[in-house]
Design brief:
about 140 residues; 5 helices; mainly alpha
């Protein structure tokens, strides 16, 4: 078993050696996309709530809507500032959304629901995967030349 761990650690070291730290002001495209998605979710949720949109015949509570919007806005700003915690938190939300959408496929009763679940799984999965490398680059220490 120790040989397996040693091989895995060697692969990890090779992968880390290939990462280059983010340059000053550099924002990879997946980071910009994730920041925009988080900001759009925050603004649209607040907008729908203010407009009085109902879900299953009831308007959502103010506390939940404002809390979610604040979390998404904090994630958007944090990711724009290239903060590791913000990317990690946003990835956690993406992972939860992907899992819920996958479970939603079991209950999908029409093609629109299936398409929505597949779109969330596909787009969310792509963004999740692309943000993994960005997180590695955010954590990579600056190399002395």
């Amino acid at each position: 078993m120790q040989r397996g761990y040693a091989r895995a650690e060697e692969r990890n070291e090779r992968a880390r050696a290939q990462l280059t730290p983010l340059g000053p002001g550099e924002r990879p495209r997946p980071l910009v996309v994730a920041s925009a998605v988080a900001a759009l979710l925050a603004v649209s949720n607040l907008g729908f709530w203010v407009a009085g949109v109902e879900i299953r015949g009831q308007q959502p509570g103010a506390f939940g809507v404002i809390l979610f919007a604040a979390l998404m806005l904090a994630a958007a700003v944090g990711m724009w500032q290239r903060r590791y915690w913000a990317v990690l938190g946003f990835q956690a939300m993406l992972g939860i959304s992907i899992a819920i959408s996958a479970l939603g496929l079991l209950l999908a009763s029409n093609l629109a629901a299936v398409a929505l679940c597949l779109a969330i799984i596909g787009a969310g999965g792509w963004l999740f995967w692309k943000l993994v490398r960005v997180m590695g680059r955010i954590q990579t220490p600056q190399r002395v030349r």
